[in-house]
Amino acid sequence: MASSADPKSDQEYGKGAPPRPDAPAVVKYFAVDVALRVLLFAAAVTGVVVMVTSKQTKWVPGLGDRDAKFKHSPAFIYYVVALSIAGLYALISILASVSVLSKPNFQTKFLLHFAFLDVLMLGIVASATGSAGGVAYVGLKGNKHVGWIKVCSTYDKFCQHLAGSLAVSLFACVLLVFLTWLSIFSLHARIHKY
Amino acid sequence: MASSADPKSDQEYGKGAPPRPDAPAVVKYFAVDVALRVLLFAAAVTGVVVMVTSKQTKWVPGLGDRDAKFKHSPAFIYYVVALSIAGLYALISILASVSVLSKPNFQTKFLLHFAFLDVLMLGIVASATGSAGGVAYVGLKGNKHVGWIKVCSTYDKFCQHLAGSLAVSLFACVLLVFLTWLSIFSLHARIHKY
After folding, report:
1. Is residue A180 part of a domain?
2. pLDDT: is A28 or B40 the higher one?
3. Is B8 within the bounds of a domain?
4. Looking at chain B, which runs of residues are DSSP E strands?
5. Considering its fold, how many domains does chain B have in total?
6. Cα distance between residue B45 and residue B24, in whole Å
7. B85 phi/psi in degrees, rounded to 5
């Protein structure tokens, strides 16, 4: 876009702040931002690992050894893909957030773009968590109206992994909400500053 | 202002040159905002109505008349509650967005608060859509690994309602993403203005 190719408008962002009496505040903001993104990365990786390692094999009378694994449900596959994307995104945004610390002129642009992407990630991770959670709940409680049996009574370890992974991804959703709030709030604070 | 050197980016942010001919741009922004919120309200109400009216009764051999309705699944109940909240929120935010048009001093504050709430709503609606979608997909395809039978082959009308409602709520998610982007972008544009 024209504005990103134009160094003049980049310089504009830093205008009025050259003596930087507010530099500690900016650093503090980016420190919180990086901390949240590191937590997001950790949560996404944990969520994926716990879900992927959930495989459990049980001997079922009359059927022999039967597996329960995440690949058996499209909802869990979507969940793993979504959380992997979120983890990768967190990693990239950590690097971007750290690198922008030394370039104050790009900070507003960074805030804008990452606020956009954070919102998108929230939508993806929240829908994946909901989707996997909905199917996992059917596995836990069954549904007598349509005759879907409980799965967790048989595959206890599998369901413990599901529960752990879902708790972590719920935490990732909360982190993404906070990250977006932080970006929005920081953009808002800049209106008064310049 | 240095931004006059870059007319293209001026146009992009919807603001004209110096002495405040930017009032139409603000009105234009709020017009788009209200339009998106009206669409969100319509989508939420449609989603709830289509889901709630999905009840279908079929005669099942050996069991007699059997109902399929959204109340049979906690995922669908959560979905209806979440979309009802989104609809109510859309209605309130339409009124707020219209009323703020005549009070320019409150516009930035409005943008800030509603950007916060839009993000929260996105999380709720996206997770509800995912949750209902995950369970509906099991109903459509079944899951042979755990012996969950298909439901949609029997209850066709019920599943058509589910599909319609889910499509509408996916649209509501997209609207919420756009609403948040619009708020963030407008906050960002104000950094240049003041």
Report:
1. yes
2. B40
3. no
4. 56-60, 64-68
5. 1
6. 31
7. -60, -45
- ipTM of this complex prediction, to 2 decimal places: 0.83
Q: Is the pLDDT of residue A174 over 50?
A: yes
Query: Per the CB < 8 Å rule, is B127 touching A123?
Result: no
Label residue A58 by pLDDT band (50, 70, 90). Answer: confident
Domain that holds residue A158: 23-193
Domain contains B13:
no
Which of B2, B130, B185 lies nearest to residue A126, judging by beta carbons? B130
* Residue B5, pLDDT score: 41
The distance from CA A35 to its chain's CA centroid, rounded to whole angstroms, is: 13
CA distance A105 to chain B (A): 13
Q: Chains A, B: CB contacts under 8 A, how many?
A: 174
Q: Do residues A56 and A155 make contact, with C-beta atoms less than 8 angstroms apart?
A: yes
Rounded to the nearest angstrom, the minimum Cα separation between B152 and chain A is 11
Mean of pLDDT values over B108-119? 88
Band (pLDDT 50/70/90 cuts) for residue B17 is very low
| Separation in Å, CA of B18 to nearest CA in chain A | 16
| Domain contains B2 | no
Closest CB to A12: pick one of B2, B115, B194.
B2
